[in-house]
Amino acid sequence: MIKGVMAHSFDYDEIRNDTEKEIMQEFSSCISETIDIWDLYEGSSYIDLHIMLDEKIKKLNEIRIIVLGENETMYLTGGYPKEDTPWNVAHIKVIHLDNPELIKT
């Protein structure tokens, strides 16, 4: 979901305690850093990256928090060149499993 994006938004539920705060900060930093340096990764480094992100998500899941996301292509206009420039953005939301906005089936 974050491969090739130029920017991201990060939204989250109200933080309930210091443990959640710490884990969310780790996850947010990991996402930001990964997006910033994605193009510098090579072949087998992607495996390490996936493992690291997976570990962060598992830590969130252990405290009953899930990660949702979607990608959107936005367009920058104006400047040079005159054509609109596609700008891929990842929208990431981190919510508690007991959030009433979460629809459970």
Please give a structural write-up.
This protein is of the alpha+beta class. It has one domain. Helix content is 36%, strand content 29%. The chain is built from 2 helices and 3 strands, in the order E-H-H-E-E. Strands 1-3-2 form a 3-stranded mixed β-sheet, covered by helices on one side. A hairpin with an 8-residue loop joins strand 2 and strand 3 (85-96). Helix 1 packs antiparallel against helix 2 (45-62). The longest helix is centred in the N-terminal third of the chain and has 20 residues, at 18-37. The protein is globular, with a radius of gyration of 16 Å. The relative contact order is 0.25.
Q: Using the alpha-carbon principal axes, give the shape.
A: globular
First CA to last CA: what distance? Answer: 24 Å
| Oligomer status | single chain
Number of separate helices: 2
Q: Tell me roughly what share of residues is in helical segments.
A: 25-40%
- Strand fraction: 25-35%
Give the number of domains: 1
**Structural class category:** alpha+beta
Pick out the low-confidence regions.
none
Would you count the extended β strands for me? 3
Strand arrangement within the widest β-sheet reads 1-3-2
Average of pLDDT: 88
The topology string of helices and strands comes to EHHEE
* Rg, nearest Å: 16 Å
Largest sheet: 3 strands, mixed
